Amino acid sequence: MPIDTRCPVCFRFDEDGGHIFLKCKKVRELWRTSMLEHIRTKLLDCPDSKKVLEEIFKLEPGECLKVCFLMWLWWNERNKANNGDQIRSIGEVSSFAEYHLFNCMKDKTQEKEKSNRKMQKWKPPPEGNLKINIDGAFIEASKIGGWGFTLRNDQGVLLAAGAGKLKHVSDTLHAEALALELATNIAIKMGCQQVIFETDSMMLKQAITSTEYDLSKLGSLFQDVKFQMRVGLIVVSFEHCNRV
Predict the structure, then answer these.
(1) Which are the contacts of 228, defined by CB distance < 8 A and separation ≥ 6?
(2) Which DSSP category does 235 fall into?
(3) Contact call for residues 163 and 202 (beta carbons, < 8 A)
(4) d(CA 183, CA 163)
(5) Of 1, 91, 173, 237, which has fewest CB within 10 angstroms of its CB?
(6) Is 59 helix (H, G, I), strand (E, B) or coil?
(7) Domains, the chain, ordered by start
(8) Could you tell me which residues are beta bridge partners of residue 92?
């Protein structure tokens, strides 16, 4: 049975692994377009396929992934050419490699951030301080929400906690602010003096620690909470924590 061993892309030389991925005229152009010619040159010096893989896996993660995507995409294009189909341009293949690399790195970053959030643990306040963790919830459809807080000392001992429903809530920030107001009132009644408030709402922290939101629709609420803190508490600070 006659077998054509020529490269189905360039039709110039007998095809083997080295030719497909490193030596074919078209694949050389692909490596150059993808700014990876220095890696292709290094791989050409490898004596066998095992050494090629070892060199690829030694690359820094971004380059390693890009090379793998590039070779995978080129293998698909080679198979299309072998079946007599039209292959994509070098620019298109290079762009697809960049696209897959971007999505892969983004997924890895999100997974890392998610893992870091899961590993995050509650930290006790400095000696002599109390920490109040607050949270608010909001349901858009019904304009109702909920609030909750916990109060712990520097040993992590729970001193107080509370939760309840909220009516006529405008948005999530509104619910968070009401939760802070209610927790502040309880802390003042309990005679707390040095308090650290911890919230997962960066907007709430900004609203309470600056005047940036004082002219907003919730400005009067923010000003009232800040006034209560100045009058009823001695030392107050705010910390932001990621939602787990």
Answers:
(1) 181, 184, 185, 188
(2) E
(3) no
(4) 9
(5) 1
(6) coil
(7) 17-117 (no CATH), 130-240 (3.30.420.10)
(8) none
Residue with tokens 């910390």: 239
Chain centre to alpha carbon of residue 60: 20
> Buried b / exposed e across 129-165, counting CB within 10 Å, b at 16+?
bbbbbbbbbbeeeeeebbbbbbbbbeeeeeebeeeee
Element holding 147 (H helix, E strand): strand 144-152
Residue 84 has which token pair?
């007599």
Q: Which tokens hold the place of 141?
A: 């459809």
238's tokens: 């705010």
Q: Which of 29-33, 74-78, 105-109, 118-122 has the lowest average pLDDT?
A: 118-122
DSSP 109-131: HHHHHHHHHHH----PPPTT-EE
> In this predicted model, what pLDDT tens digit does every residue of 45-101 receive, in sequence order?
999 999 999 999 999 988 999 999 999 999 999 999 999 899 999 999 999 999 888
**Distance between CA 142 and CA 148 in Å, rounded?**
19
| φ and ψ at residue 88, rounded to 5 degrees | -75, 160
CB of 44 closer than 8 Å to CB of 22:
yes
Question: Tens digits of per-residue pLDDT, 115-165?
Answer: 665 556 789 999 999 999 999 999 988 999 999 999 999 999 999 999 999
